[in-house]
Amino acid sequence: MPETPSSQSVQQLYLDNHGWLQQWLRRKTGCREQAADLAQDTFMRLLTQRKVEELKQPRAYLSRIARSLMIDQFRRRMLEQAYLESLAALPEPAEISPQERNVILETLLQIDQMLDGLGPRTREIFLLAQLDGLSHAAIGRQLNLSTNTVSKHFVRAMAHCLLLIGD
């Protein structure tokens, strides 16, 4: 059965760029296996997001996808590390099943992505209020802002989160 133009384009794009992408990723990550996994994930994401024939600069597009995947992987590792450190700090060993652990990690990733849509100051105010339990006045003193400004940022963050939850 002859190949369609689309499958020929995908095959050619893969042949032309896979080795280059894997080398690029190996330099970025310092790990051959991680680079191979990320290269494969990059092509999988490309296939699900865009028609290959429309690419004018495939290497620029592939490196942008790969960079995004590396950032996602880095965030996930940082969240996992923070989670493991918080578990280690508990007075009693917590017995959590692998399923519960995955649910917790996925929830943390969703929260991180939610907060990613906020500006740095708004995110910091929200986290100081929610995680550290600081009052708006205490946050204002810490960040050298008025209580009114802190309240506006906090309301903006809450509205942002509620809109995302509603979606």
UniProtKB/TrEMBL annotation:
<comment type="similarity">
    <text>Belongs to the sigma-70 factor family. ECF subfamily.</text>
</comment>
<keyword id="KW-0804">Transcription</keyword>
<dbReference type="InterPro" id="IPR013249">
    <property type="entry name" value="RNA_pol_sigma70_r4_t2"/>
</dbReference>
<dbReference type="InterPro" id="IPR039425">
    <property type="entry name" value="RNA_pol_sigma-70-like"/>
</dbReference>
<dbReference type="GO" id="GO:0016987">
    <property type="term" value="F:sigma factor activity"/>
</dbReference>
<feature type="domain" description="RNA polymerase sigma-70 region 2">
    <location>
        <begin position="13"/>
        <end position="77"/>
    </location>
</feature>
<dbReference type="InterPro" id="IPR014284">
    <property type="entry name" value="RNA_pol_sigma-70_dom"/>
</dbReference>
<dbReference type="GO" id="GO:0003677">
    <property type="term" value="F:DNA binding"/>
</dbReference>
<protein>
    <submittedName>
        <fullName>RNA polymerase sigma factor</fullName>
    </submittedName>
</protein>
<dbReference type="InterPro" id="IPR007627">
    <property type="entry name" value="RNA_pol_sigma70_r2"/>
</dbReference>
<dbReference type="Pfam" id="PF08281">
    <property type="entry name" value="Sigma70_r4_2"/>
</dbReference>
<keyword id="KW-0805">Transcription regulation</keyword>
<feature type="domain" description="RNA polymerase sigma factor 70 region 4 type 2">
    <location>
        <begin position="109"/>
        <end position="161"/>
    </location>
</feature>
<dbReference type="GO" id="GO:0006352">
    <property type="term" value="P:DNA-templated transcription initiation"/>
</dbReference>
<dbReference type="InterPro" id="IPR013325">
    <property type="entry name" value="RNA_pol_sigma_r2"/>
</dbReference>
<dbReference type="Pfam" id="PF04542">
    <property type="entry name" value="Sigma70_r2"/>
</dbReference>
<dbReference type="InterPro" id="IPR036388">
    <property type="entry name" value="WH-like_DNA-bd_sf"/>
</dbReference>
<dbReference type="InterPro" id="IPR013324">
    <property type="entry name" value="RNA_pol_sigma_r3/r4-like"/>
</dbReference>
<keyword id="KW-0731">Sigma factor</keyword>
